[in-house]
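Here is an idea for our session: we take a single protein and study its fold together. Start from the sequence, derive the backbone structure tokens from it, and show both lines together. Once you have written the record down, we can walk along the chain together:
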Amino acid sequence: MSPRALLLVNHHARQGQKRLKEAIQCLKELDLDLIEESTENPQRLTEIIQRYQNQVDLVIIGGGDGTLNAAVDGLVDTQLPLGILPLGTANDLARTLGIPNSLSEACKIIAAGEQRRIDLGWVNGKHFFNVASMGLSVKITERLTKEAKRRWGVFAYVATALQVIWESRPFSAEIRMNGESISVRTVQIAVGNGRYYGGGMAVVHDATIDDQRLDLYSLEIKNWWQIILLLPSMRQGKHIKWREVRAYQGQEMEVYTRKPRPINTDGEITTYTPAHFHVIPKAVSVFVPPTPQS
């Protein structure tokens, strides 16, 4: 009997509408029985997943990190395994899991059936896969239009980031963890659960999405041009070795600011400081590339 899958594709994702037919054909050829649902409003994804939880064996989501984040509560609630079709701009969760951007290859990974339990981050009641952050990344999210992402892809992130960096100003924050309180002047605080975010930047060089820890860094530069020097290291997650970067690891942490600051989770602004973060180990199951045979 063929596995029954709920297929949810974000039509507004960079490649969503254009590649929907290709995805459907590929999955059917791999003997998956599909129930297709429209997702014009990503905020309804959890409700749709809950409605079908007793009728399907898995959920397949086509879109980017924002679409996956919108569905995460439904996946936690139903414990249905997740198949990912990377149709967004950055596809950082797919990159973390080793899922290629090739649609046919992503479909084959789902059909092969190998699953992996992964951790989730949690901040103020909101789950996240990749990173929750405040400062520069929030300003980039606010400036980055859907049209720019669709047209220019990852290059839209770069152009917007450079503009935001030029205008960046430090803010004061207090980080609390392990019974310590640390006061900082920073342009960005990021708390990572997975490895990649922001179109391929690494939170920390050795981060994995099932290491049962969160990785925090605070970017404490005084001049805008310093971040240009840091960027190559940020691609590899080695920026934490720089003097201007403060880094911590832990299962739980808090961040306080003088006035509420918006927090970006997986590319969407979803909550504000004060922020309480913790990791939820092995929270959901995801289809991943088969483990190489030794």
Observations:
- Residues 144 and 157 are 7 Å apart (CA to CA).
- The longest helix spans residues 16-29.
- The mean pLDDT is 86.
- DSSP finds nine helices and 18 strands in the chain.
